[in-house]
Design a protein that fits this description.
The protein is mainly α. Helix content is 85%, strand content 0%. α1 packs antiparallel against α2. It is rod-shaped. The chain starts with 5 loop residues before the first helix and ends with a helix. The relative contact order is 0.12. The model has no long low-confidence stretch (mean pLDDT 87).
Length: 104
């Protein structure tokens, strides 16, 4: 268990999630742009190789976007778990406090 307060851990989690969201967006854009790029301006002798290159790298960028999306989902799920657990603990302490009544 960390000595950091939960607030700081949640902030780190939020920043990490935003970083992975940005990475996903960049990879989506790269995949789209590489996939739509044309090799027609190149000499005919290299157009086949260039088309293969663009196609493969569009695929790699798409795979990277999917991986980043997986991390985003996992980080959001972790954040939801933290929030749910924190809220449940808060309710339990409130219930305990209510049971003590005004005589504490």
């Amino acid at each position: 268990m960390s000595d950091q307060p939960l607030v700081w851990q949640m902030e780190s989690l939020r920043r990490g999630t935003e970083g992975w969201e940005a990475q996903q967006a960049l990879m989506d854009t790269s995949s789209r742009e590489l996939g739509s790029a044309s090799a027609s301006a190149l000499p005919p002798s290299v157009q086949g190789a260039a088309t293969t290159f663009l196609s493969r790298w569009a695929g790699y960028a798409g795979e990277s976007a999917a991986i980043a999306q997986g991390f985003v989902g996992a980080l959001r799920a972790t954040s939801d778990d933290y929030t749910t657990t924190d809220d449940a603990t808060d309710r339990q302490f409130s219930d305990l406090d209510a049971r003590l009544g005004s005589r504490r």
